[in-house]
Amino acid sequence: MANDPIDNPVIPITPKASVGSAGGSEDPLNWGAMAVLGGDIHVGATGCQAPEDATTKMSEVDPAWTHLGRYSKDGFEQNLDRSTNQHVDQWGEVALEIVTESGLTYKTTLIETNKAVLEAYYATDVDADGTQVIVPSATGKRAPLCFTVLLANADGDRFIERYYIDKGQVSEVESRTMQNGEVSAYGVTYRAYPSDKIADPRTGKEGSAKIFRATAADAS
């Protein structure tokens, strides 16, 4: 998709108030087995307005959101990292297991070349004439990030998931290959840091990402 899935005029969106489920189930998220149809990524300026649902166009949420474009057919990989410390009782059984370290990352391959993508990959600014200095030790800034994904189930029902990250930062990059006839892509891994803007309303703990979900009518 050349644009955010919700910008596609052939995919009418179910109003937020009437978001429901496939198959008439009482469970609003009983979507069934899902296949990813596509999606894209936006990066925001620090302090920009955060999305509040899965369907509003990011350009309407805040003009400060920049479209990074599409990612490869491999989509993106979400990884929840957890390290634990086990406490064993006198009988050698685990009596308590405590999470000592945790983290959340998103790995993807950007396939479009533009100023925002180049600055995310190389972590340095691009000049007006296209010049860019590569500094291997450069570290990118933390900034808001948003993945929007279009999915479908076996019945042809379509759904949208939007992953909002308030503090995202490129923590790793993959080798960039220049091969004849192949797409010159940018493999990046974003680390999502905890933020008080997306705290869990039940526990008060700061979250690293927030997921919005909505249903969409079947595209014609």
Helix content: under 10%
Number of H/I helices: 2
| N→C terminal distance | 16 Å
Query: How many individual β-strands?
Result: 7
Model regions low in confidence, pLDDT < 50 over at least 5 residues: 1-24
- The overall pLDDT average reads 82
Total number of domains: 1
Cα-based radius of gyration, to the nearest Å = 20 Å
**What is the N-to-C succession of helices and strands?**
EHEEHEEEE
User: How is the biggest beta sheet arranged?
Assistant: 6 strands, antiparallel, barrel
- What strand line-up does the widest sheet have? 1-2-3-6-5-4
Strand content: 35-45%
Structural class: mainly beta
- Shape annotation: globular
Molecular structure report:
- This protein has 220 residues and is mostly beta strands.
- It has one domain (32-216).
- Helices cover 5% and strands 42% of the residues.
- The protein has two helices and seven strands.
- A six-stranded antiparallel β-barrel has the order 1-2-3-6-5-4.
- β4 and β5 (158-173) form a beta hairpin.
- The longest helix has 8 residues, at 115-122.
- The radius of gyration is 20 Å and the shape is globular.
- Residues 1-24 have low confidence and may be disordered.
Entry summary:
5% of the residues lie in helices and 42% in strands. The chain is mainly beta. The chain has one domain (32-216).
